[in-house]
Amino acid sequence: MTRTFAYCRVSTADQTTDNQLHEIAAAGFTVEAKRAISETISGSVAAMERKGFVRLLDRMEAGDVLIVTKLDRLGRNAMDVRATVERLAGEGIRVHCLALGGVDLTSPAGKMTMGVIAAVAEFERDLLIERTQAGLTRAKAEGRALGRPSSLTAAQQAEVRAKRAEGLSLGALANEYGVSRAAIQRVEKRCR
């Protein structure tokens, strides 16, 4: 017997999953309250790292159906969404997304849809990397300093270099200047 589950997610505590549950019911799916999982967690957290989603997986078995209102309820990262859908499909669980016309993402049409979404996400990621690299190259050409600003002044950096040459430890200098050991190491790297 096919059981229907719902996964509803919001990102902040001031939001509610009520609208998602109403959308699922309005689409004609009957989900018992005990089979509807709602949680408040960022979509940037991988589905398999969310307590509510993992609890849902523990309850589901082959032949069950999982309903989500939108793909971003499963995750913001297309690769994570795809991996989640593939894992569910591998366990014989169908995934329906209302925003995509209720298509079963584990069906041939759903797999094609997921392939297009993954291709677009990869294209967007490549464009972002390309734009970032172009921006960094332009900033370097303009003589701008890149990276985080130093937590120590130029005079303090000179003092740190001199004291390190005298043999003072990273920890002692970090304590003296109120910075991390890594900040002292960065001063040393810049002078090499």
What is the gist of this entry?
This protein is an alpha/beta fold. The chain has helices at 18-26, 51-59, 78-90, 108-141, 154-165, 170-177, 181-191, and strands at residues 4-10, 36-40, 65-68, 94-97, 103-104.
Describe the structure.
With 192 residues, the chain is of the alpha/beta class. It folds into 2 domains: 4-107, 3-Layer(aba) Sandwich (Rossmann fold); 154-191. It has helices spanning 18-26, 51-59, 78-90, 108-141, 154-165, 170-177, 181-191; strands at residues 4-10, 36-40, 65-68, 94-97, 103-104. A 5-stranded mixed β-sheet has the order 2-1-3-4-5, sandwiched between helices. Helix 3 links the parallel strand 3 and strand 4. Helix 5 (154-165) packs across helix 7 and helix 6 crosses helix 7. The protein is elongated and about 75 Å long. The protein starts with a strand and ends with a helix. 21% of the residues are buried.
